[in-house]
Amino acid sequence: MFIYMIKSVYGPQLYRIFSQDDSSRGRYYIPGNLEYYSNSLLSLFRGLYVFCKWGSPLILAYAYKNNYFSLDGLCSLAKLACLFGFVIVSTFVSRGLGRSRDPLYLEFIKQYTDINQKKNSAEKQKFLSKYDFEMKNWNPDFISTSRPPLFKNKVQRTLNESFLSKIKYPLWRVLSTICVETFGLRMMYPGVMIQNLIGNALLEGRAKLIEFKKAKRAVIQTADNCQNKIDTLFVDQRNRENFSNIATLTNNNLGSNGKYLVLCCDGNASFYEVGCFQIPIENGFSALGWNYPGFGQSTGLPYPKQLTAASDAVMQYAFSLGFKQENIILFSWSIGGFAVSWLTNHYPDVKAVIMDACFDTITPLAQQQMPKFASKFVKYTIEHNLNLNVAELISKYHGPVTFIRRTQDEIISIIPRVAATNRGNDLLISTLMTRYPSIVDKDTIPYIRTWLSAKNDLERTKVFSSYTTENIQLCESILRSYASEMNGPKKYPVYFGKENEARKEIKLAMAVYLADKYLLNFESSHCQPLSNEFFRIPWSENSMRQLSYSF
Prior knowledge:
Layout: H1 2-10, E1 14-17, E2 27-28, H2 33-54, H3 56-65, H4 71-100, H5 103-115, H6 121-128, E3 131-133, E4 142-143, H7 163-188, H8 191-194, H9 199-212, E5 216-221, E6 229-235, E7 261-265, H10 278-282, E8 286-290, H11 304-320, E9 328-333, H12 336-346, E10 352-356, H13 363-368, H14 375-385, H15 390-394, E11 401-406, H16 423-435, H17 445-452, H18 457-468, H19 472-485, H20 504-518, E12 519-522
Parallel strand pairs: 4-5, 7-8, 7-9, 9-10, 10-11, 11-12
Antiparallel strand pairs: 1-2, 1-3, 5-6, 6-8
Helix pairs in contact: 1-4, 1-5, 2-4, 7-14, 11-12, 17-20
């Protein structure tokens, strides 16, 4: 008993005891007064630590100015440090005393101590289905051993540069690193900072998924040098008769969609508890959600190298759950497009990719938020530290992909709520140019942008009809012809009508037709939950294998 009282001092926080049957809901753990006030005081100390860490240059300057680095000053600082140390130790002890008087926490810490040392995944999973708690010291349930090539930002080339450039760029390198470390990363991923503000929403969302959807929680460890622990949640619907109203994956009757796993990558301020993770579940798919490094209970920070290592570990975990690469669908929302596009480069045989409200590159969006005079420095900082170039990565993927554009998007549009400035337009056009270079080029792109600039569905329909009415059947026949001639896995780029020069009107019709097949327009703002009707399996040339036509 004394051992468990000691462990209560530094043991994890207990949040909730889950219900073990379908007839009732679980209950939140309510700490006693002594534990509650001790936790509050420790939270205050953690806040002070963060403030001192990021404000250290100013604090050191103040200390130097006020002679705190003299012998007398250092003695005063040592006394202050001892006082703080005594208060912190006393707070931990008082928290332990408060917990040791609570039978619920004592029962929890006993089981936690025993099970956390075991490798039996069944026992650990049973424990995780019973308690919700702080998981930073939980031994990982899955350790990734895969080591894909590390993500690399752009490298500055100094060859043939002027003398001034050789001075400027090293200076920019230092300044850009300081900017990213202090505020840049947190501006790009505000979820790192706001998670404490929405803690109750995260707890409630996680509880609903575990109690109602029988989700299985697991902590996985990345294979990179950081060895971050990533918090994941898996909903298995392989053995459930869940049918979906969305487009089928093949021309045959699918039965349950549960045999397909949707791996979800959320936005920069969302979590699996309250993010896009719910959408595939509602459509009957098995789903795997995860929190980025530094989000929720995941450790680390969402730097590109850590984030890509985490996404790879999640994919390896998906394989361990029994899903093959060809049965996995990658689904992203907003900045999650970066993780998804990176995964497609290393797992090219995934079933399909669905990208909701994603941009082509983060650079113009970052420049928009900063003063114009700093535009070049912002570009340098992004490219050399946080180079989220989604378009470049997704262009190397040869499988089916769908882009969902929010027509009233205020986040990834240069001019808020103006569809013509939505960076999703550039992502779409970049992909089409890579896949169909003889169709989507400088001659047809202006017409595609005219269609993309339409203010609503009615205007888009009019523009689409004006381009394709007389040639839509011809477009479909061309695609059927190509599909019927395909041997083996398709590869891009493809050249429709390359052998015989296509007429301009057919080329234009084909360009807009392809854009319409790859893009879904959702009349909403950036953060509105996606409607189930838009969660569709992407179009591909394979679906056109019927009649044939040639120029």
